[in-house]
Amino acid sequence: MRGAPTRTDARIQEATLAGSTATTGQSSGGGDGASGGGSGGGYSENLGHVIFITAAAAMGGFLFGYDSSVINGAVEGIRGKFSPGSSLLAQVVAAALVGCAIGAAIAGRIADRIGRIRVMQIAAVLFAASAVGSALPFALWDLALWRVLGGTAIGMASVIGPAYIAEVAPPAYRGRLGSFQQAAIVTGIAVSQLVNWGILNLADDDQRGKVIFGLEAWQVMLGVMVLPAVLYGLFTFTIPESPRFLLSVGREAQARKVLAEVEADGVDLDARVAEIRDAMRREHKSTFKDLLGGGGFVFLPIVWIGIGLSVFQQLVGINVIFYYSASLWQSVGIDPNSSFLYSFTTSIINIIGTLIAISLVDRVGRKPLALVGSTGMAISLGLVAWAFSARTGKGENIKLPDTEGTVALIAAHSFVLFFALSWGVVVWVFLGEMFPNRIRAAALGVAASAQWIANWVITVSFPTLSDWNLSATYVMYACFAVLSIPFVLKFVPETKGKTLEEMG
């Protein structure tokens, strides 16, 4: 899973893209002109400090991953408490995505006015409030509103975290440090599932069992989110403001101090300040109009390709695993307590796949990884569909025979692995590199908006589709994985080893 901006300020977008694409510059010798520490040899004393700063900012990604997964553990408790239909429950689960779009849309402009750190602090407060409110809802619509608020915080953090990291990270390490955000997301998913499992144990495997202060297990699961939110907020008081923002508001002395902290020993601060000022002067603030083309297709072809990548990433159904995996595991005969452990192993596989992708994306290229992932996902989803064709019962009472249940478990984990080592990472590398400089910020906003919409559609539709025919639902996801193969082969350009200027 990956959160992303939808319509943010161009400068924030460009900084985010720098974090996504710097590894290309490292391998090709191009990119952002990463002088000032090119060899990395002068960073030995500062690198630990830079890593801490990056990890603190990436806590926003941790919150995103945590929220995306925590609802998985609370779904059945919410169903038992408020008795919603499958469609209504899905809308509550997906309500956070509405907030994500709102938060991402406003974060950039706010950050340009009050700074990156202040936006992180606002996001932390909103997320903490959402956690408390979600734990104590008096009605289903109240819970949905709190999830929208939490989603707003996630949307803000998903924009500002990568942007801030790109702005403070030394050029020689920007690509690797930029990957902290994605690593934090998958770590948040894993930690959330482990916490859910512990809470469920305290409640004797009953999501509506009492745990503490009269709160039911599902309430505690949602309320515990306040802890990482508070930690995120506290971290923001220990890290410096972005030197780029400081220069934009005339605080050059502070900007120089920050650069001295994060850049290599002996870096020419005058040259670095001049470089940043020059980049800010040359920026083109792309707009929606820049994306329009002729021929009646509304958008330029490259924009459609970006939209296609974003939509395919979601239409294979990856978020179904993280939002509803506990329910899925129970359908194959696994008891509620063990189903949470299986969800945790899924998250570990997700982390492993992400690390594999990060290590390979600059070695083997983006397209080969995407094609391997699509093939593996299609086969895995096909096996899941076959397994559920042997189901008995309907809705929440679906059960699988032992053999088919084993196949479903293995194939679902295989699906997550193939997604993580390919589309989970390479889509954002593609989007950061494939657009010409003059439209990059606006094009990324449109592509990211398409991703939020596709994510929402999959999340809302899955319970209804699963009640109708779970096997056919997975066949549909498998078909999207198959269709992504010719799409990548025919339309998606390989960006490995090319500078951003060459992509223009």
From TrEMBL:
It is found in: Cell membrane. Residues 27-38 have a biased composition (Gly residues). One of its GO terms (cellular component) is plasma membrane. Its main location: membrane. InterPro entries: MFS_dom, MFS_sugar_transport-like, MFS_Sugar_Transporters, MFS_trans_sf, Sugar/inositol_transpt, XylE-like. Residues 15-26 have a biased composition (Low complexity). GO terms for molecular function: carbohydrate:proton symporter activity. Belongs to the major facilitator superfamily. Sugar transporter (TC 2.A.1.1) family. This is MFS transporter. It comes from Embleya scabrispora.
